[in-house]
Amino acid sequence: MGDKGATMITARRRPRVVQWIVLPVMGVVGALLIVAYLSSLHAAVESEQAGACLALQPEPLSGAARPFTLPDLNGERRSLKSFQGKVVLLNFWATWCPPCVEELPSMMQLQRTLDPRDFTMLTVSVDDTADVVKAFIARHRSIIGGLQVLMDPSKKTPTGYGTSKFPETYLIDREGQLRFRFINKRDWSSPAAVACLRSLM
Questions:
Q1: How many Å apart are CA 146 and CA 166, to the nearest integer?
Q2: Nearest-10 Cα torsion for 192, 200, 169, 53
Q3: Beta strand spans in the chain (E)
Q4: Domain end (from 38, 55, 72)
Q5: Is residue 113 located within the same domain as residue 190?
Q6: Domain membership of residue 102 as a residue range
Q7: Residue 44 sits in the same domain as residue 61
Q8: pLDDT of 40
Q9: Do residues 66 and 50 share a domain?
Q10: Same domain? 48 vs 100
Q11: Does residue 66 share a domain with residue 49?
């Protein structure tokens, strides 16, 4: 009777032991499947975004955008971090650079096309002084009035991004991650450019 009773107790305990083992394993497997699904979904989104920007011949990038804080034309310091949550078009340029000047009107058109709640265009001038840039904008106010400019005559910020020639433009997503680099000028008002930017929003 004693042996039979012990066998019955063991049989009753076995389902609980199985539960203690199986349920955590199932939880781990489920979590791994969710992670794998989200990773594949993220990869698919990135692939779609890269396809949307392909016509602009970008250089794909990855990793966090290098942080910086620079003065605007009025001396007020602005940080890249303050724009997180928006897609940022970061452009390094100078008034003495012909292709830089040539692409500015299309950049302004892009800025007017996209929703400012989702997008901001940030330019960093490597001119010697803010007065030079102010005078340049004043001469072309009807075309580029309202251009958002930060000053970096030392060129430390573009150098930190790997830029040595101008213009160069970087696209940064809502999470502050670098996505693409564009060497030399582009027509930022083109349907291809608008589609590229919207794919990141």
A1: 21
A2: -40
A3: 59-60, 69-71, 77-79, 87-93, 119-125, 149-151, 168-172, 178-183
A4: 55
A5: yes
A6: 57-199
A7: no
A8: 45
A9: no
A10: no
A11: no
How many residues comprise the chain?
201
Residues 40 and 131 in one domain: no
Phi, psi torsion values for 178, nearest 5 degrees: -70, 135
**Residue 18 and residue 103 in one domain:** no
* DSSP label of 64: B
Residue-level pLDDT at 51: 80
pLDDT at 44: 43
Residues with Cβ within 8 Å of 35's Cβ and at least 6 positions away in sequence, in order, are: none
> 178 in helix, strand or coil?
strand
Tokens of 61: 């990038």
Three-state secondary structure of 111-127: HHHCCCCCEEEEEEECC
Strands 77-79 and 59-60 turn out to be unpaired
CATH number reported for the structural domain that contains residue 164 in this entry: 3.40.30.10
Q: Give me the tens of pLDDT residue by residue for the chain, a chain 201 residues long.
A: 555 555 555 555 566 655 666 666 666 666 666 655 444 434 444 554 668 899 999 999 999 999 999 999 999 999 999 999 999 999 999 999 999 999 999 999 999 999 999 999 999 999 999 999 999 999 999 999 899 999 999 999 999 999 999 999 999 999 999 999 999 999 999 999 999 999 999
> What is the count of structural domains for the chain?
2
